[in-house]
Amino acid sequence: MSTLLFSFDILSTFLGFLVVSFLAILFFRHRYHGKIIPGPAWIPLVGNMMELRSDPDLRICLRRLQKKYGDIYKLYLGPSPTIVVCGYETIKELFIKRGTEFSDRPAATLPIIIINGGKG
Question: Average pLDDT by consecutive 10-residue portion of the chain (120 residues)?
Fold first, then answer.
């Protein structure tokens, strides 16, 4: 009986260690990778979703972040980084004058699902 309890104790300790290690790797890998673009702190697997839900009107929340971080900032929607571009002149510069540099980006499915109310 004590051997069985000992094996469960080792198993739970090992699984706990794996979960904590995975979250630490995920957090630190994204934390120090790509610090060029400013943005708020985020939580692994959740990203900035809690901060985006802090105000019922998403536009007010995004405007507040724009005032704090500038016209270009980074948010994490879940574990995926998302670049937010604000301001007419900044958008014109990026998508009209330098559009070929940004034309081959992959489609982001999570923001599309969120915008369409979960309908994909």
Answer: 61 76 67 72 85 85 92 88 88 85 67 51
Please give the C-alpha separations between residue 13 and each of 6, 18, 26, 90, in angstroms, as whole numbers.
11, 9, 20, 50
Please count the other Cβ atoms lying within 10 Å of the Cβ belonging to residue 65: 21
How many CB atoms neighbour CB 48 within 10 A?
Answer: 22
Query: Two tokens at 61?
Result: 């929340």
Cα(43)–Cα(76) distance, rounded to whole angstroms?
9
How confident is the model at residue 34, as a pLDDT? 53
Tokens found for residue 120: 């994909």
Please state the domain count of the chain: 2
Nearest-angstrom CA–CA distance, 106 and 102: 10
Range(s) of the domain holding residue 114: 37-120
- CA-CA distances (angstroms) from residue 78 to 42, 107, 111? 9, 16, 10
pTM of the model: 0.59
47 and 91 belong to one structural domain: yes
- The encoded tokens of residue 87 equal 């301001």
